User: Which sequence fits this backbone?
């Protein structure tokens, strides 16, 4: 499927929860966030159905996001149900890595192809401060478990303040080179201010070539991260909501005052 700007839309990012086991300073405010009610969060059946329909109209690449997707109860069986959908050529998941040592092997067995792990520093104290309490040892163990399980490639999402020349980013780059990992550098963004740049070594933020749609954990189809437009798949029907989203996809991102990163999956 193509949008009004002749961009081929074949990538779907699916947020399966707005919950997370970390509280990263650039994602969640210190005072916490209002979480969706459990009854509003998509069931596994709804998620699988939405992806089925999306694939039938042209989606070939699917990424599972959150919040933190690995905190969703039964996540491995959901991955299993999605992995058997014919037409998915590229199936990935983005995680903060804390639960990855536990789940990596099962995710690979369930049919996941590849994984992105968030890591902004190699310094344990800085990590604890950025994530408001996270233990970096789990992330390192998770990366090793993902490689051992055959998830490939394993990419590292490193958030930078202004530039990938910052010391922490340089250290993450070195770490990736030494450990056969692919580093991507994501400049801090602000939804409300409409501040974003193109991901270094990635495609996010590249509006001219944007190929993506998003599904939020409560079933909204969103044509753009930096825009407030959304279509309720539960009300409109999945196919109609996807068509509306593609039909209303903006030429480029502007601002999004409705969401936070934790409920739209970045
Ligand atoms: S800001 Fe919107 S149009 Fe631009 S790359 Fe992101 S999702 Fe695509």
Assistant:
């Amino acid at each position: 499927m193509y949008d009004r700007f002749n961009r081929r839309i074949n990538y779907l990012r699916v947020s399966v929860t707005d919950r997370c086991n970390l509280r990263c300073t650039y994602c969640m405010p210190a005072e916490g966030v209002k979480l969706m009610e459990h009854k509003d969060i998509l069931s596994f059946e709804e998620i699988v159905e939405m992806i089925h329909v999306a694939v039938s109209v042209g989606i070939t690449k699917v990424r599972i996001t959150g919040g933190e997707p690995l905190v969703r109860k039964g996540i491995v069986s959901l991955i299993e149900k999605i992995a058997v959908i014919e037409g998915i050529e590229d199936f990935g998941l983005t995680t903060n890595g804390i639960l990855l040592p536990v789940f990596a092997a099962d995710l690979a067995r369930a049919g996941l192809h590849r994984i992105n792990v968030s890591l902004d520093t190699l310094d344990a104290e800085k990590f604890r401060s950025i994530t408001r309490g996270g233990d970096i040892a789990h992330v390192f163990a998770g990366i090793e478990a993902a490689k051992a399980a055959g998830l490939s490639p394993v990419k590292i999402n490193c958030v930078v303040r202004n530039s990938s020349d910052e010391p922490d980013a340089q250290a993450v780059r070195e770490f990736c080179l030494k450990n056969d990992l692919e580093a991507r550098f994501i400049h801090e963004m602000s939804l409300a201010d409409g501040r974003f740049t193109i991901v270094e070594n990635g495609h996010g933020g590249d509006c001219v070539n944007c190929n993506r749609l998003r599904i939020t954990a409560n079933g909204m189809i969103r044509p753009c991260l930096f825009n407030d437009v959304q279509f309720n798949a539960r009300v409109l029907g999945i196919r109609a909501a996807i068509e509306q989203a593609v039909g209303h996809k903006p030429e480029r991102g502007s601002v999004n005052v409705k969401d936070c990163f934790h409920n739209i999956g970045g």
About this structure: The chain has a mean pLDDT of 96. Residues 44-56 form the longest helix (13 residues). Residues 205-207, 210, 212, 224-226, 252-253 surround iron/sulfur cluster (CB under 6 Å).
